Amino acid sequence: MPKLVELGLGWVEEPIWPPEDAAGLRRLREAGLVVAAGECATTPSEFDRLIAGKAIDVLQPSLTKIGGVSALLDRLASTRGAGIRAIPHSYGWGPGYLATARVLAAQPAAIPLETIFLQLAVPAYREFDAQTTMLELSDAPGLGFAQNEDIWRFRVSSYSTGEQA
Q1: CA 105 to CA 109: how far, in whole Å?
Q2: Which of 20, 34, 63, 106 has the highest Cβ tally under 10 A?
Q3: Which residues contact 51 (CB under 8 A, 6 or more apart)?
Q4: SS3 call for 117
Q5: Prediction pTM value
């Protein structure tokens, strides 16, 4: 573990199993690691346990797992007074990703959104700039994004028919 601390990593994400083991995460923090967790948490009590247990430095709630926009806003508010960074998780590129981006854009201070690495190579939305890793939000109704159809070339099969792409 000392070698990991020496690397000066921004954080280590969900480094133990189960990922919301507050006592285990706290021990890693006490050893000097910067710890991120929360993308697997689904209830307010799980998040409260991570925060109250001083188990994390970075909270990563997932809007689609915790109950939508209101629940994400509650989780963001819970980090403000606790000295914890919030970097929401949104695996994939569907409506949850877009809704999370909208929620974060409405916050008084900038909050990053975790983006999967493939999006850096082939952005799912034309508004995503892979060079700056910035997502430009439009003022169009709804979520306001145009999907990049090139992303479908990565499709392997169709779940509904089993047809190969």
Answers
A1: 9
A2: 63
A3: 59, 78, 79, 82, 84
A4: coil
A5: 0.76
CATH number of 2-114: 3.20.20.120
Contact yes or no for 98/127 (Cβ under 8 A): no
Domain map (residue ranges) of the chain: 2-114, 116-165
Average pLDDT over residues 13-41: 94
Question: pLDDT category, 49, cuts 50, 70, 90?
Answer: very high
Q: At what angle do helices 44-52 and 22-30 cross, to 10 degrees?
A: 30
Would you report the helix, strand and coil content of the chain in percent, each value rounded to 5? 35, 10, 55
Contacting residues for 31 by C-beta, under 8 A, at least 6 apart? 1, 5
DSSP, res 73: H
Provide the b/e sequence for 9-43 (b: ≥16 CB within 10 Å).
eebbbbbeeebbbbeebbebbeeebbbbbbbebee
